[in-house]
Amino acid sequence: MKKIEAIIRVSKFEEVKAALKEIGIDFLSYWDATGLGNELHKDERQYRGTSYDTEYISRRVLSIVVRDVNLKKTIDCILKYAKTGEIGDGKIFVWDIQESYRIRTGETGDVSLFNLD
């Protein structure tokens, strides 16, 4: 099992979520985050008369635990649907998961996950 943590643009979240559901990944956690990226300079942009400081970028973090067999298709899906081609598209990180437990039933391992193929 693997844990995928993807930091993506908030504007791409709904598209990524729908695409993940299409490939059978329909259980994930997410939260909003603000952080600093690799931008080379501080930039202030105008949108509808309001100034926005782009040094701090609003992002959404997705946390997904998948069976090993679903890892590649999940990462490929996020890469495809989160990409704009611009600086600040985000990052994906992957961790090994030693064990998983479904609290309600006590099931462990792969069967405790919702994304069985």
Provide a quick synopsis of the model.
The chain has 117 residues and is of the alpha+beta class. It has two helices and six strands; from the N terminus they run βαββββαβ.
Would you kindly provide a written description of the structure presented here, covering whatever features stand out?
This protein is of the alpha+beta class and 117 residues long. It has a single domain, classed as Alpha-Beta Plaits, CATH 3.30.70.120. The chain contains two helices and six strands. The strands form two sheets. Strands 2-5-1-6 form a four-stranded antiparallel β-sheet, covered by helices on one side. The chain has a two-stranded antiparallel sheet with strand order 3-4. It is elongated and about 55 Å long.
Helix-strand blueprint:
Layout: E1 2-9, H1 13-22, E2 29-35, E3 44-47, E4 50-53, E5 57-66, H2 71-82, E6 90-96
Antiparallel strand pairs: 1-5, 1-6, 2-5, 3-4
What is the third-level CATH name, the topology? Alpha-Beta Plaits
Strand order of the largest sheet: 2-5-1-6
- Kindly provide the radius of gyration, computed on alpha-carbon positions and rounded to a whole number of angstroms: 17 Å
| Total number of beta strands | 6
| Content-based structural category | alpha+beta
- Biggest sheet statistics: 4 strands, antiparallel
Q: What is the number of independent domains?
A: 1
Q: Work out the oligomeric state of the chains in this entry.
A: single chain
Shape: elongated
Distance between termini? Answer: 13 Å
